[in-house]
Each structure stands twice: as structure tokens, then as C-alpha cells.
Amino acid sequence: YELAKNPDIQERLRQEINQAIDENEGQVTYDVAMSIQYLDNVINETLRKYPPVESLNRVPSVDYLIPGTKHVIPKRTLVQIPVHALQRDPEHYPDPERFDPDRFTVEQCKNRPAYTFLPFGEGPRMCIGMRFGMMQIKVGLVTLVRAFRFFPTVKTPERVVFDPKSFILSPAGGNYLRVEKL
């Protein structure tokens, strides 16, 4: 969706993918897919705008004093972390509705507070499938972006509206794109 709506980003990603593969004698390998920084940026920006889940639940095993305050979260209290809202907070992500993979350059990430990007959670309860999922996304995107160009259609919404009945965040009514073979 975002690559179709942002053809300049789609083209830059295609160029960086092709350059990395050309530098590896035309071979698409795990190492090549994992080494393309702009691919990481595009995926992370997509996960920022469209995290797999809207929120995370945590339950502290001991009373927890919130640093810098007098507030205590009693043990066994359900704490809900609003991932979707947190990752669209303009304090951490200016103009949060804009799709901007450059938010995830190494330099930009260093300047952002920890725990403001949680598409897979964090710490010991982090999603166990994160690494496998990221590898699948990268290999899939490398394959698709090298072979096809994506465009919006008249049925492509200006803004993604999430299906309130879905367990994971997914677009209501599907996602319509035009795909052209390169």
C-alpha cells in the first residue's frame, strides 16, 4: 500500500535492492537481503504505521514504582501498552501520518527514546517469531519489488481504515493495488 502510494520510495527501494544484488554477482542471498539498510527502514516505517497488534498487555510480578514519580503499579495489575497510539505520537514521530522510511536511519533511531517502537513488543516477552517474520518480509519484498511495480487504483483508499472485527490490525475491505510486471 505505502509503496504504491509513494512511488519515489518504491523506486529508491528497488534501486537499493538491485545495487546490493549486483554487488553480490547477481545472487540473492540471506546475507544480501539482511544487509539492505533502506529495506529495513521501509519495513520498520510500515510496522510503525501498521503494527501487527494495537496494544500489548503486561502484568508486573512485583509492585513497580514509575521512575520520576510517586505512582506505583501494584503487582498483578493488567497494564495495557497502546502500541498503535505510541508509534503515532507526534512527539516521537513528527507528522506521524506521513510515510517516511528515513525515520529509521541509524542516526534517527539513536535520537529517539527507547520503547517508542514496539511492533513486536520488547524484553523477555518479545514476539518469538520476530526474526523469522522479518526474514520472510525481507525476502518477500526483495522478490516482489524486483519483479513488479505497484500503483494505487481508484479503489485504493487515501487512508487505511482498520477492520474493528479483526484480531490483528488489518485494513477494512481489503487492499486494492494495480501490479505491473517489470
Task: Describe this entry's structure for a reader.
The protein is an alpha+beta fold and 182 residues long. It has one domain. It has helices at residues 2-5, 7-22, 30-35, 37-49, 83-86, 106-110, 130-147, and strands at 56-58, 64-65, 72-73, 79-81, 148-152, 177-181. A hairpin with a 6-residue loop joins strand 2 (64-65) and strand 3 (72-73). The radius of gyration is 19 Å and the shape is globular. The two termini are 18 Å apart. The relative contact order is 0.17. The mean pLDDT is 93. Belongs to the cytochrome P450 family. May be involved in the metabolism of insect hormones and in the breakdown of synthetic insecticides. This is Cytochrome P450. Keywords: Endoplasmic reticulum, Heme, Iron, Membrane, Metal-binding, Microsome, Monooxygenase, Oxidoreductase.
